[in-house]
Amino acid sequence: MAIEVRIPTILRQYTDGQKAVEGTGDTLAELFTDLETRHAGIRARLVDEANGDQLRRFVNVYLNDEDVRFLDGINTKLADGDSITILPAVAGGMA
Length: 95
Fold this sequence. Notes:
Layout: E1 3-6, E2 20-23, H1 28-38, H2 42-46, E3 47-48, E4 54-55, E5 59-63, E6 66-67, E7 83-88
Parallel strand pairs: 1-7
Antiparallel strand pairs: 1-2, 3-4, 5-6, 5-7
């Protein structure tokens, strides 16, 4: 089962500069564990282990353009051919 994962610029240091990588897993949690086997350090940037292995607060993850926080979060089920997009949350505004 192949799942495309689009990587934001800030995390490409973990993927040797690749904009997209492939991984496998029945859930988002399994996919992140699979990615860690080839891209050491990426899982820690996505998953907060101290908070019960939940997505980090300032990381947005989309499954086929749908925010996984409105699905089952890190336990969201995946299927062959799905597309995951990782986006860091952006803050700012006028002071």
